[in-house]
């Protein structure tokens, strides 16, 4: 692994950790329209492309987690998990090269935001589960 990649990776995960810690402080507030506490969650659903964005359709509510990365056990559990009925708009998912997985069942980890009634995930991990979204 190149030193440059290691530095970029370290900076990225450091920024994610600072954000998570800052938002978990009692009394810390998010966006003015934020309806729920901001939590890191693991969500399963069907990846769908919109005109200029990505969504996770038929998504589960999501399990709270304290790990931004994904283990093999979590991936296997997500493969078995039934789909839900929610839709999330995905933020920052383009960095994960998701184009080939449009319409597939995926697992996404990220900061869960509920802004003015719209669910969003600021993505920290993306895992392909199945080419069929069932």
Describe this structure in words.
This protein has 134 residues and is an alpha+beta fold. 23% of the residues lie in helices and 37% in strands. A five-stranded mixed β-barrel has the order 1-2-4-6-5. A hairpin with a 2-residue loop joins strand 5 (105-115) and strand 6. The termini are far apart.
Q: What is the helical fraction, as a range of percent?
A: 10-25%
Report the sheet with the most strands, covering strand number, pairing sense and barrel closure: 5 strands, mixed, barrel
Distance between the termini: 37 Å
Structural class: alpha+beta
Relative strand content:
35-45%
Global mean pLDDT: 81
Order of SSEs: HEEEHEEE
Q: Return residue spans where pLDDT drops below 50 for at least 5 consecutive residues.
A: 20-31
CATH architectural label: Beta Barrel
How many strands? 6
Q: Total number of helical segments?
A: 2
Rounded to an integer in angstroms, the radius of gyration calculated over CA atoms is: 15 Å
Shape annotation: globular
User: In what order do the strands lie side by side in the largest sheet?
Assistant: 1-2-4-6-5
What descriptors fit this protein?
23% helix; five-stranded mixed beta barrel; 6 strands; OB fold (Dihydrolipoamide Acetyltransferase, E2P); 134 residues; alpha+beta; globular
Question: Secondary-structure blueprint of this entry?
Answer:
Blueprint: H1 3-24, E1 39-49, E2 54-59, E3 63-64, H2 72-80, E4 86-91, E5 105-115, E6 118-130
Parallel strand pairs: 4-6
Antiparallel strand pairs: 1-2, 1-3, 1-5, 2-4, 5-6
């Amino acid at each position: 692994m190149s030193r440059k990649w290691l530095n970029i990776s370290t900076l990225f995960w450091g920024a994610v950790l600072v954000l998570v810690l800052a938002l978990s402080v009692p009394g810390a507030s998010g966006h003015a329209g934020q309806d729920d506490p901001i939590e890191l969650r693991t969500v399963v659903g069907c990846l769908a492309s919109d005109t200029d964005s990505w969504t996770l359709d038929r998504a589960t509510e999501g399990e709270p987690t304290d790990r931004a990365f994904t283990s093999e056990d979590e991936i296997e559990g997500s493969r078995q998990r039934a789909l839900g009925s929610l839709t999330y708009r995905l933020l920052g998912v383009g960095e994960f090269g998701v184009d080939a997985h449009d319409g597939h069942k995926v697992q996404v980890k990220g900061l869960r935001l509920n802004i003015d009634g719209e669910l969003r995930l600021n993505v920290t991990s993306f895992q392909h589960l199945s080419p069929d979204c069932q």
